[in-house]
Amino acid sequence: MRNTRPSRIIPFCRSRLQDIGKRLCPWHLVTVCLLVYVATTLTQHNWDPMSFVIRGKAFDPRASNDSLGYDGQFAYQIARRPLDAAPYLDAPAYRYQRILYPLAARLLSLGSPNLLPWVLIMINVVALPAGTALTEIILTQHEMNRWYALTYGLFIGLFMPVRLALTEPLAYLFVQIGVLAFLREQRIDSGAAFAVAALTREVTLLFPIGIAFRMLSQRRWREGLSWLSLVSGPFLVWQVVLRLWLGEWGVGSGGALSTPFQPVPFRGWWLMAPLNPVAFAVMSLLVVPMALAPATLSLLAALRRLFKGPASPTTWVLLLNASVFPFLPTSNVLDPLGLSRITAGLVVAVLDFGAEQRHHRALNYALLWIVTVVFVYQDSLLPTS
Length: 385
What we know:
Layout: H1 9-23, H2 26-44, H3 72-80, H4 92-96, H5 100-108, H6 116-141, H7 150-154, H8 156-163, H9 168-183, H10 187-198, H11 206-217, H12 221-246, H13 267-270, H14 277-308, H15 313-323, H16 330-333, H17 336-357, H18 360-366
């Protein structure tokens, strides 16, 4: 009888899969998903890059519809006519304060109107996987599993802005550059990255302000104030320029049809309940698990750390990002797409906090945000184009 040896196929396959797993990274998967999504979208619109710029006739007479359009049109208009875009903007100072994304697109397109919409897409297609890769590095430097970074790359509040030519992918890329540089004690590089992030989207200032609070809480007054000056200086100077140029400050609660911040916690959400109970219940199915519940849990977690003793920088950052949600305007809370964009900062803060604190529970819960990527394919969530 011939001797038989156990099959080597299964061990071989297992070994190969392990090798692939070691080489495969979250940012690879995010890149593939993003490229497929972008290509599919372009195919559905006859490869017209302007399909990523949702324009409305209310702000652009050349638009083919009577809608308001969406925020990406304002970045496009500023990039196309940097000094003369005000007539095409709903709130000129508010839109101009987010200058970096349109300015980068203007420079990279060499001022070509034909290249410009392609460059707006390209910047975000590069920025989202790059931010995911930086999140991986932050996780691994704290000896945490790099695959938690999928939450960053596949959260709808960072993924969908690629489709709509928005500022979030580039802004949070610079945030993660700043976080990583701070982790490596490269203070000037970190401050510069956060300063650039603030000129891309102002809400990212919550990250360096949180770090400054950490310094000030340790009575490192000079270091904390110097840090704030480094980070906020360019933003404040730009605000003065906008005031002198356009007659308004850029900081506000939003553009067209926006409502003010609420003084009563969560009033922006429950205000709708007595007016339309059914719509309130349906909206709550998305709003509560995606944003309000995670923000509340994050707020409690950050406060618990603060009461236990000296808090880390990411604890302060988490606290500030979570503290925004109880006071959000109704116009933000009841707009799923807009709310997801605001929640992007909370997602990044939770990931950075979970990495630094080695908080497995926070990172495991954060994985639930990946589910939101399924809404990317729901055209009903997109503004009318």
